[in-house]
Design brief:
The structure is a homodimer of 208-residue chains.
Chain A: H1 9-36, H2 43-50, H3 64-87, H4 93-110, H5 112-118, H6 121-145, H7 154-173, H8 181-193, H9 197-207
Helix pairs in contact in A: 1-2, 1-3, 1-5, 3-4, 3-6, 4-5, 4-6, 4-7, 4-8, 4-9, 6-7, 7-8, 8-9
Chain lengths: 208, 208
């Protein structure tokens, strides 16, 4: 008779506790970054709010920037899902892209946590690419396949339109763009993807 | 008889020595960043190459990033002047913008120092804006005034097209774009500014 393998209860429980602590740190970081910005937030404030020991921060993150990364990835992923949900029934690939871009421009204006994170531009570029790049590639490829867009290859289009979005979002956070920045930006992106100017304007107006 | 004011020889000489040291540090930094990248470069390597004392680095720069900033500002300013010189006689504001954008995309591919600096994206955004933002605003405003461009206000156009340029340059440095990335990007920017797709394509082809 072979010895039965003992259940790995300790490993699972340890994993669950690790994930619970990580979750508390991310939530606390997100909340503090939103209310007071990344630079003004100290790690001990994060661990205080998360109700975990100061040292345990470093079991999860090398430094504050790594936590900023994690928070931004989550926010971008959440928002990406929201956009996917909202545009799932759209027929027109251009309407999908217009909606998605306008959504993020509005987010930059209305969501303090997102705005504060965007100010850390290096993290923004990398995180936005990782979290949203695949969605952007998918949406743009659809438009190219259907002939709606002409900017190819898709990779070049994703990089240029994604970069334009970051530029516009920075302008919104810096307060130098008007209330219609979302629609203006969306139309501009559609033109960049190959739509005739009138078409881009009309599509942006109805989608945004 | 009034006492003659002594000449301020010491102040001028001190200033000249300060500027000479700063110049040596910037040149050394630029050279090392180009050959081995920013992260791999230590401050003592910079002061060694500059042939100045290690401590004097800190009389000029708070840290390495501040030197990266200064180097990038210079490179951007130099390249901006080169573009101004090259496009001074152009009649078409769209040709000016196409040339300028293509120039920087090519620079990202061919100039290791520029590429290495671009990887520090946060510095890139800020420096590119400060050094080149005014030129971009000037060129885009000309196009708007003449009716060649329709993307307004100029600020929104500068932010979106500038952001697109950063995105494309990152793609070039990461090696994911083809050899025609400069022309493709230039045409995309002209479409974004309001040119009909055929017009954008032709203008980019002849200007780039």
């Amino acid at each position: 008779m072979t010895t039965p393998t003992p259940p790995r209860a300790t490993g699972d429980r340890r994993t669950r506790r690790r994930e619970a602590t990580r979750r508390k740190l991310i939530d606390a970081g997100r909340s503090l970054f939103a209310s007071q910005g990344v630079d003004a937030t100290r790690i001990n404030e994060i661990t205080e709010l998360a109700d975990v020991g100061f040292g345990s921060f470093y079991n999860h993150f090398t430094d504050k920037d790594e936590l900023v990364d994690a928070v931004m990835m989550e926010v971008a992923e959440e928002q990406g899902s929201i956009v996917d949900e909202a545009t799932g029934g759209f027929d027109d690939p251009a309407a999908v892209v217009a909606f998605a871009h306008a959504h993020f421009v509005r987010l930059a204006r209305e969501d303090p946590s997102f705005g504060q994170l965007l100010i850390r531009l290096d993290a923004s570029h990398r995180v936005m690419s990782e979290a949203l790049g695949p969605r952007a590639l998918r949406d743009i490829q659809k438009g190219l396949d259907s002939g709606r867009f002409t900017f190819e290859p898709a990779t070049a289009a994703v990089l240029a339109t994604g970069g334009a979005l970051l530029g516009t979002m920075r302008g919104v956070v810096d307060g130098v763009l008007g209330p219609d920045a979302d629609r203006v930006h969306a139309a501009a992106v559609l033109r960049m993807l190959g739509l005739e100017p009138k078409d881009a304007e009309e599509t942006a107006r109805s989608a945004v």
